[in-house]
Amino acid sequence: MSQPQRIEPIEAAPPPRPDPAIDTTIAVLDLVFGAPFERSFDIRLWDGTTHLGGADPGADFSLHIRRRGALRRMLLPPSELSIVESFISNDIDIEGNVESAMGLADAIARRILSFGGIARLIPKVLALPRDDDSPPLDETRYTRSLRLLTPGARKSTEPEIQFHYDVGNDFYALWLDPSMLYTCAYYMKESDDLATAQINKLDHICRKLRLEPGDDAARIHA
Questions:
Q1: pTM of the complete model
Q2: Looking at residue 135, what is its pLDDT?
Q3: For a FRET experiment, which of 13, 19, 27, 91 has its CA 20 to 30 Å from that of 147?
Q4: For the chain, what are the domain ranges?
């Protein structure tokens, strides 16, 4: 008669260790955006951790830090350009009403864009994690953008510029105003159409420059 088999108890797997980068990231978030009781929006991290804002429970948007190294790239260097580009590159995302979040960049600037603010921020930012696949700091999008300002880099991009922009006026006439202005427009009233908004913009510029009848480029430059 066979002996009954002994069933060994299955040991439960240990719970996953929390990402050590989270505490470092939260410390920087509090410095940049304020402590939770000061914030009117929630912040969600790459692992799903959510930190609720307490200033306005009815806030209709939240901030999503999508990658471990996102905050480091957003704040190195600490400038409005790097903040904006972090959203463009999808390192940081807004979930909910984007219009309500339009003041975030200004809020960050008020907190950190001073000598004291930067002095407090930089050591904490340098302690933030990098993504495993993130490039060295000298190969980030900021340095690449600066290199594009050199004459050699501009020359190498000429074929790409021609491909995208040398498409003829028939194309641009489909969506530009009759004067073919390829710039932003200034809508003063909801009833303004594109042509009116472009005239508003030109009039606004002329008033800013205090132009008078007969002024030419040479006089303006002087």
A1: 0.51
A2: 46
A3: 91
A4: 21-131, 169-211
